[in-house]
Amino acid sequence: MTQNGIVLVVSVSIRHEDQVLMIQENKASVKNTWNFPSGRIEHGEDILEAACREAKEETGYDVQLTATTGVYNFISSTNHQVILFHFIGKIIGGSLQLNATEIIDAKWIEPSDLLDPDLLELRDKEVIKQITENVISQKEYPLALFAKRMEVGF
After folding, report:
1. Which positions ≥6 away from 4 have C-beta within 8 Å?
2. Among candidates 109, 8, 110, 3, which has minimal Cα distance to 50?
3. What are the helix (H) ranges across 3-86?
4. 133: part of which helix (H) or strand (E)?
5. What distance in Å separates the CA atoms of residue 6 and residue 152, rounded to the nearest whole number?
6. Which of 90, 50, 86 is nearest to 68 (CA)?
7. Which carries the bigger pLDDT value, residue 132 or residue 79?
8. What is the dihedral of CA 116, 38, 127, 92, to 10 degrees?
9. 147: burial class by Cβ within 10 Å (0-12, 13-18, 19+)?
């Protein structure tokens, strides 16, 4: 979702056996770059539901969110101001099925390997580095920070 020129995005570190799942994107503006499963929050959508939906759409996995590593504000590689809500998730169902129009490949990787600048071409290197450092140090916060969206009338 874009709000006042700011893009609101969710992403998920899907964890399994001390590794995280990275996806290789096939979108024109970021072709062949690696990223956590992620995408824009749709208008009126709950942030936690958006994170689960994006993980499912891009990987085929049903995930249960377990924590958040935080909120990140940055200018993206496509020159948009982004506010990104990043979550940790675990697989609770589904199977790896890539959305071939948007995703070329996926691989499980040790989080520390994401800090190697020569290993993968990362989409937004600095923010992925920040997220990865939080994942490695287990700097995680409870999901209770994201209360369910409430309808408020003015």
Report:
1. none
2. 8
3. 47-59
4. helix 125-136
5. 22
6. 86
7. 132
8. -70
9. exposed
Mean pLDDT, range 95-118, rounded to an integer: 92
Confidence of residue 153 (pLDDT cuts 50, 70, 90): low
Looking at residue 121, its amino acid is E
Q: Give the separation between CA 47 and CA 135, rounded to whole angstroms.
A: 20
Q: Where are the beta strands (DSSP E) in the chain?
A: 2-3, 6-16, 19-25, 34-35, 38-40, 61-75, 81-94, 103-109
Chain length of the chain:
154
The pTM of the full predicted model, rounded to 2 decimals, is: 0.90
Pick from 104, 102, 114: nearest CA to 15: 114
Q: Which of helix, strand or coil describes residue 84?
A: strand
